[in-house]
Amino acid sequence: MATSVWFYAGFTAFILTMLALDLGVFHRHAHAVRPKEAGMWVAIWTTLALLFAGGLYFWHGADTTLLFITGYLIEQSLSIDNIFVIVMIFAYFKVPPRYQHRVLFWGIVGALLMRGLLIGIGVLLIERFGWIMYLFGAFLIFAGIKMALQREGEAIDAEHNIVIRTVRRFVRVTHEYDGQKFFTMIHGRRLATPLFLVLVVIEFTDLVFAVDSIPAIFAVTTDPFIVYTSNVFAILGLRSMYFLLASMVERFVYLKYGLAVILTFVGLKMVAADIFHIPVVLSLLVIILTLGISVGISLKGTVLARPEHE
Q1: d(CA 213, CA 266)
Q2: DSSP state for residue 61 in the 8-state scheme
Q3: β-bridge mates for residue 190, sequence order
Q4: Rg (CA), the chain
Q5: CA dist 173 → 32, 180, 182, 190 (Å)
Q6: What's the mean pLDDT when you consider all of the chain?
Q7: Rounded CA gap, 107 and 273, in Å?
Q8: Over the stretch 219-258, which tens digit does the pLDDT of each residue have?
Q9: Is the CB of residue 1 less than 8 Å from the CB of residue 223?
Q10: Which carries the bigger pLDDT value, residue 185 or residue 20?
């Protein structure tokens, strides 16, 4: 799909305006985001994504719309796994609930910049070296198998975490929070607060997840505009989804297996693209069914596992 630079500029301007309203108007004052408020924002970002899909249908037809929706669902589903890690990060650093929104807001701004850069590099590599699609596919198959086999509940070890150790080596970090500030002044010296350390860890975590999710969407389309917009909408919904699901993430015990199946599926699709073409509609159905089954089994399993007196 040939897309003018003005489409990118207009889309980015709209997203920045929404983010400015989010932080400057609706979340001007630090407060704990309740599930009801989070659910409202999830609905808002999902509605905007669907309206954008409707616009694509009007201007570019059903095929482009299906590509966007499939890419959006892939990115959205893979980003859910990020929520588990964010929960552990906030718990380890004991981040007060009223400051978590600010960290995630700037974390998402950084994620959008990083992903835009990675998407540009990915598209350029595919255009220059077509065979790299096979490499991406093989990597996704490996990532899917690794996700299915990895152990649950691996805790954060600050003493050995290379990101935390690197930041502390170059930046003086206080032991106490200073409201929602990332930096504070103590005895005339500008020091980082633990909130800044949390932000850096979350940014690095998203970078790690992007290494999986961005190649996955290339299995659906290599159109940079579709890849970019589907990533943006998925990432924007992640923050609100965290506040909606954070208290119940432990119930999604089988979700990682569903995500592993999705990663492996799109990896196989990329590897076998020249031999067997999988229609976009079929890919979309596989993703929806896999997510639905893994979430359904998780919720049913955790309900049955609860003691009768609860």
Answers
A1: 10
A2: -
A3: 185
A4: 20
A5: 24, 15, 10, 10
A6: 83
A7: 35
A8: 888 888 889 899 889 888 887 888 887 767 777 878 888 8
A9: yes
A10: 185
Which pTM does this prediction carry? 0.83
Per DSSP, the chain holds a count of helices (H) and strands (E) of: 10, 2
Instruction: Give residue limits of the domains in the chain.
Output: 33-304
Could you give the 3-state DSSP secondary structure of residue 130?
coil
Please give the Cα distance from 84 to 88 (Å, whole number): 7
Tokens of 226: 């579709």
Q: Please name the residue that has the structure tokens 């940079």.
A: 224
Given this model, what pLDDT does residue 310 score? Answer: 47
Mean pLDDT for the stretch of residues 111-118: 86
Choose the weakest-confidence range: 7-16, 55-64, 137-146, 169-178: 7-16
* Cα dihedral sign, 51-57-60-66: positive
CA atoms of 220 and 203, how far apart (whole Å): 26
Neighbours of 113 (CB within 10 A): 11
- C-alpha to C-alpha distances, 30 to 25, 43, 59, 102, 178, nearest whole angstrom: 11, 22, 41, 8, 12
Contact in structure between 137 and 216 (CB atoms under 8 Å): no
DSSP secondary-structure letter at 176? S
Does residue 3 sit in helix, strand or coil?
coil
59 has pLDDT over 90: no
